[in-house]
Design the sequence.
């Protein structure tokens, strides 16, 4: 299955429209205004909040707590690396590998491909294509991409 994630360019906060492979709106992602850290909410097509991404306030590197339907499900933590950004995902045994700066990376569960993320060039705002192997991983994979993108918005 495939999701297309488009960041809105002229918005006060990080705002994304997410479409399914048939270009039907699937999710809406919006950050809170005027907070010290990223507080991002994910809504389904019925405008029901299904997830949240909250950045820890006093972390040395970007650290995001992911919640689904009000329950904590994992943490995305930026790790110190000299040449390539690296993130650890403490959730479901997932690992992120690839070119995060170029927006071309994989999410793996052991040797199993969970999702492939690619960034489309020549668009207003960030545009990502998220190919997900198993539909049950859709929401968590989406929130992982948004958390990684939020880590770079400060640079």
Sequence:
């Amino acid at each position: 299955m495939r999701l297309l994630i488009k960041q809105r360019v002229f918005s006060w906060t990080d705002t994304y429209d997410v479409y399914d492979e048939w270009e039907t709106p699937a999710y809406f992602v919006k950050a809170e205004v005027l907070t010290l850290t990223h507080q991002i909410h994910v809504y389904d097509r019925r405008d029901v909040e299904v997830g949240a991404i909250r950045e820890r306030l006093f972390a040395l590197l970007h650290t995001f707590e992911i919640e689904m339907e009000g329950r904590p499900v994992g943490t995305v933590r930026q790790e110190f690396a000299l040449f390539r950004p690296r993130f650890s995902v403490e959730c479901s045994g997932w690992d992120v590998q690839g070119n995060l700066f170029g927006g071309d990376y994989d999410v793996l569960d052991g040797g199993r491909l969970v999702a492939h993320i690619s960034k489309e060039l020549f668009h207003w705002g960030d545009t990502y294509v998220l190919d997900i192997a198993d539909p049950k991983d859709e929401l968590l994979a989406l929130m992982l991409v948004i958390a990684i993108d939020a880590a770079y918005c400060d640079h």
